[in-house]
Amino acid sequence: MRTRITAAVLAAALTPLALTLSAPAAHAATPAVPYDFNGDGRTDLAIGAPGATVAGQARAGAVSVVYGSTSGPKSSTRTLLTQNTAGLPGAAEADDAFGSALASADLDTDGYADLLIGTPGEDGSDSNDGTVTIVWGGQSGLSGARSLFSFFSTDYDRYGQALAAGDFDGDGDVDVAVGSTGPITLSLVQGPITRTSASNGGSGSRNDGWSSSTGVTHLSSGDVTGDGRPRVVLHGRAVSTGAATTALADLKIGNYVDWLERLPAGFVSAVGDIDGDGHDDIVVGNDREPSADPEGALGGRVTVVYGGPDGRDTNRAPLVLTQDTAGVPGAAEKGDRFGSDVSLGDINGDGYADLAVGTAGENSAAGAVTVLYGSASGLTTKGATSYTQNTAGVPGGSEKGDRFGERVTLTDHTGDRRADLSVSAPGENAGDGAVWSLRATATGPTATGSVSFGPGTTGVSTAGTPGYGTALNS
Question: Are 133 and 116 in contact (CB under 8 A)?
Fold first, then answer.
């Protein structure tokens, strides 16, 4: 049974758009999985550095794409993207923050995943209008680009601060959901979206219960109901208190008031099938202290909401985890930021999605990552492990302010059908940032053979504080 959200808590109205139709794109026999840009069966690693200096323009932003290989992400095979890259629309300007958000899908169903890049600081019809760039995948990797349709440029700012892609309306074409600030906080751009397609229409929502100044800050998606069509998890802040607000949305339905389903509040989320029942589950991270957010906890908390035919499974109580939960490594301490990021993927190849949790504030913000495992009965703390830069075999060393675990992602970079663990520390080397990748095995991630690289290795300037790894594969 769905939870009806009252107008005082969370309400919205749909703003319809006139449709401009074009011929549907031809569908490939097997669309690529997200982030496999060259179609080799290995996911590639996209790394956002929105603080990067480009051609002297501070905080213009850059994105490095490091391609997968049998040994994991291989920094010698890479593509550097900025708004000055040939073929990309726009130009690198100060404070554009290109690379603040990332998403991927095979938009044109040609068998190669495409990359969506949010640039919320881009000036358009007004300051910080925002834009989203699509870079197309192909046999040789990423090349060629266009801008995503932007329907409400006078009604929002920071378009592209959050992104998700999927067939949200169930018509067989991939759509894109975009978070922004202002009166319109969420936009749905309908597919098909190809290199040459005209607009196929879209819609936008006014979430009256959410703060328009922060808007929709994070998006994730997955098949929670098991009907083959992804739903979207939206994150924002309450207009009256600034508290975290999280909801599950069905973007096929026009009346937002009737279908938004309240979830435990947090700032990030991930969606995947932890218990193998055919319904994706939702993990929400809230890394704030109780003094900073009403649903925060000492040291941060992570909540697992199990999916069912109607969205969240109301017959199963959510699982709440902190570092004081039995079996979770460490202890809950003020400022740990357990839940700074979350990601789901099958690390050990047993058919159940496992969970990586970032704890970017651990040990004076040196940072850590905790891995917990899925099972037929749900997420378990049995065998949970923790990784830091001081873990044997992990390159580097833990230092105050590194923020190791600010972003985490579980995805198969090697093609062995196990999800490898990639971690960023945007504070590494006084804000340069860096990324690590640990190979997956049948018993979990291994530090043996793990790789690490920073912005300089992949062509990103270290002038200023690029914050390499502020965004990773979502």
Answer: yes
**Angle made by CA atoms 215, 217, 219, in degrees to the nearest 5:** 120
Query: 264, 208, 210, 268: which is closest to 238 by C-alpha?
Result: 210
Through-space distance between the first and last CA atoms of the chain, rounded to whole angstroms = 29
Q: Residue type at 401? A: G
Which two tokens mark 419?
A: 């999800």
Phi, psi angles (nearest 5°) of residue 203: -150, 165
* pLDDT at residue 254, rounded to an integer: 65
Q: How far apart are CA 434 and CA 200, in angstroms?
A: 39
Beta bridge partners of 385: 371
* pLDDT value of residue 471: 98
Residue 208 main-chain phi, psi, to 5 deg: -65, -25
Average pLDDT for residues 45-52, to the nearest whole number? 98
In 3-state terms the chain splits into helix, strand, coil percentages (rounded to 5) of 5, 35, 60
Question: Rg of the Cα trace of the chain?
Answer: 20
| Residue ranges with strand state E in 182-276 | 186-189, 202-207, 218-222, 231-237, 244-249, 261-263, 268-272
Handedness of CA 448, 434, 422, 109 (dihedral sign): negative
**Would you say the pTM of this structure is higher than 0.85?**
yes
Which tokens in the block code for residue 198?
């005209």
pLDDT digits (tens, 9 = 90+) for 104-148: 999 999 999 999 999 999 998 788 999 999 999 999 999 999 999
Q: How confident is the model at residue 246 (pLDDT cuts 50, 70, 90)?
A: very high
Tell me the mean pLDDT in the region 86-100: 97
DSSP conformation class of 119: E
Residue 252, both tokens: 């096929």
CA angle 205, 209, 213 (to 5 degrees): 75
Strand blocks (E) in 250-337:
261-263, 268-272, 281-286, 301-305, 307-308, 311-312, 319-321
How far is it, in rounded angstroms, from Cα 176 to Cα 108? Answer: 12
pLDDT at 80: 98
> How many Å apart are CA 65 and CA 49, to the nearest integer?
11
Give the model's pLDDT for residue 41: 96
Is 210:186 a contact under the CB 8 Å cutoff? Answer: no
Alpha-carbon distance 412 to 338, whole Å? 24
Q: In 349-398, where does DSSP find H-type helix?
A: 362-365
Band of pLDDT at residue 58, cut at 50, 70 and 90 = very high
On the CB side of 294, CA atoms within 13 Å amount to: 11
Find out whether 40 and 237 touch, Cβ atoms under 8 Å: no
